[in-house]
Hints:
Blueprint: H1 7-13, E1 23-29, H2 36-44, E2 53-60, H3 66-74, E3 80-86, H4 94-109, E4 115-118, E5 123-125, H5 129-139, E6 142-149, H6 156-175, E7 194-197, H7 198-204, H8 214-224, E8 229-239, H9 251-259, E9 265-267, H10 269-286, H11 292-302, H12 306-314, H13 319-326, E10 336-338, H14 339-357
Helix pairs in contact: 6-10, 6-14, 10-11, 10-13, 11-12
Amino acid sequence: MQIRLRPECLKTVIANLPDTAPAIVAIPARNEEQLFPALLEALCALDVQGGRLIVCIYLDSCSDGSETLLRQAAGRLPFELVIAGSPTQHAENAGAARRAAMAMALSVLGDAEGLLFTTDADSRPRHDWIRAGYAALVQADAVAGRIVRRNGSADPAQCRIETYYDRLYRYRRLLDPIPWEARDTHHFTGGANMAFRASAYRALGGFPALPSGEDATILDEAARAGLRVRRDAAMVVETSSRRIGRASSGLASTLLALDSGLPPHVAHPGGAAWQWQAHAAARAAFATIGSPDVRKSLAARLDLTVDHVLGVARDCPNAEAFAIRIVPAAPAGFGVVSLAAAEEALLALETGASEIAA
């Protein structure tokens, strides 16, 4: 899937965010009757800055008492609760369910601007979630928040992996800084904690109907479209550490694999560093890509033809889209290594960056 956003559409997306824009939370759920009370309690505690909050819950082929519980609670909640769903049993598809929940939110908004948040039924947004999301979306078009696992210390291997990826992502922004990134950033791209300007989400066409990975995919496509994607640690959602999840290849599957004693392996950070340095070079080149010398230099760096560089540039609305689209995969040689080896390699990269900055 490749999204091409017209330049005039992009200008609409990055317009000022109205102070009166309503916040709508979209939540897909399948047989989560036991978890809804804690979720509703967290939603009731949200600080919405005096604004309007609407919660849309899509019941994905539920066969438990979820709908009854929600309808009984609806009249006692400090926000409007919209409930819909599919009674037909079908294969679990996390992307399709989240897409349906977000479609409910869009139907409430109509054509108006608004803030679309999404989380999961086993998660609990912190009380300032909406406020932090609004502040982030003033700077960006889409934001991924930090996901904190309840009782996370019981899974030290996963904690170590998350710490590594946070370090790696912060290193990315040393190599390729962008003005809309949060100072306190992180690596998470989970659907349990995301928010969009409604105009940006409409332009993207919604979450893809994938069995898993719909969250990372839509953020990748947002960047390819030239939208501003921000990862902001101030926007926090707590989630469960359950081993039986609702999405294949999700967090539950990862925790289960770690429980089995499998040693974690990750891609060598050198490959990511090469790509991010290339992103920075492409961003810098975009403003003067009409210069033959600039095109020639960038083409040589990326091992591409000059005509290819120019063709991609002509199809991009801004430097963000160009940087993400033009940079190829890292050269061969950066394979998968143990987490320990990756940590050591990243430390060497960080040390080198610090020495250069000094």
